[in-house]
Amino acid sequence: MSALLSVSHVSKVFPRTHRSAGLRAFVRLALGRTNTEGFSALADIDFEVNKGESLALVGENGAGKSTLLKIIAGVLQPTQGSVVRVGTVGALLELGAGFHAEYTGRENLKLAAALQGLIGRAFEEKLDEIIAFADIGEHIDQPIKTYSSGMIVRLGFALVTAMKPDLLITDEVLAVGDESFQNKCITWMERYLDQGGTLLLVSHSLYHVKKLTQRAVWLDHGKQRMLGSSNDVAIAYQTFHEEKQATQKVAALALDETMLGQYAVTALHIDSSDATSLRANGEVKARDGRRPHVAIGIVRADGTPVFGTTSEIDGFTLRHAAPGVFKFAISLTDWRLLPGSYRLKAHAMDPEGMRVYDTLEREFMVPGTKRELGFVDVPRTWD
Predict the structure, then answer these.
(1) DSSP readout, 210-225?
(2) For position 257, what pLDDT does the model report?
(3) Cα separation of 84 and 46, whole Å?
(4) Structural domain containing residue 287
(5) 223-271 pLDDT tens trace
(6) Contact assessment for residue 65 and residue 143, using Cβ atoms and an 8 Å cutoff
């Protein structure tokens, strides 16, 4: 396959803004030396996008996605590395970029089209098509300084649909505008890809990432953390966020010392080798020697509950293994969990099954390529 875009070991360093740092950066530039002193926005980014392929960029705010897109589009130059583009490029980056605030929508379309080589009769023949796609009514003849952010995106995206570039670069376009226009954009993108177009998409929506792209790059603090299939990268990125949220939740909760010590889960082992089932066994110690109960729960990595039960609810009696030591085993079958990262939690409970005293948990991963939303794959029939 031929690469339309090659990003080869790209790094970007922005010089510090204080006077002495700026002067040193200027001297290095004048001497033809690479400026490596300052804020590193990108470090050694390396990937290719082949003709007819779709690739997503994911990452938290500040990860370097917009900086990388500007380098790819030619707005910024890399400090190190190189970017090679082949064919025509259509870029939807910052809202209103390239538009003149005092000009009307119609005038801006003519100007932007001319900058991309679409002029004269060729532009006039496509104008009605562009205006119809933008669907902003009489505002097309109003200055765009009066437009909302969604109307500006409509105008820019409508122009792209007429140009049909070899490579389309979009930065969070689907996060702006009403739902009907987003659906229109998705439909157009799918048709564009079906016709051999090439897409570089930035989006925080993992649903759009998995729906519209084949591969993805995960940027983390300016570094390339993962490159792989969109499904694998989306699962890893979602797991990262869920674990981060879980850590924040734990830090925010005060530990109730009075709930610890009387009953404790001292062992928990799981076998999750089968994607549709799991077996767990464990041990609970009771300081008072009474037979405790145990609660079993499945949660996502961020702590969101998926399922839970207790030995008391299910009428199960823990086996007495030694003085003050009780054992249990449980099999969870045909659970239909969607792909992602989960945790199995075992909670030691009092013999009455009323209070939780201690928790032990183990992580497990459910593999797969499913794109359904939520936590479980519910059996369904379409008529």
Answers:
(1) HHH-SEEEEEETTEEE
(2) 42
(3) 12
(4) 257-366
(5) 999 999 999 999 899 888 878 877 765 554 444 444 456 899 999 999 8
(6) no
pTM above 0.85, yes or no: no
CATH code for the domain in which residue 261 is found: 2.60.40.10
> Could you tell me which residue, 365 or 327, shows the higher pLDDT?
327
Tally the domains of the chain.
Answer: 1
The identity of residue 192, as a single letter, is: Y
CA distance 79 to 75: 13
Task: Decide if 55 is inside a domain.
Answer: no
Distance, CA of 6 to CA of 9 (rounded, Å)? 10
The answer to whether residue 351 sits within a structural domain is yes
Place of tokens 């098509």: 129
Structural domain contains residue 272: yes
pLDDT in tens, 99-118: 888 999 999 999 888 887 88
Residue count of the chain, please give it. 383
- In whole angstroms, what is the distance from residue 119 CA to residue 107 CA? 12
Rounded Cα distance between 247 and 67, Å, is 29
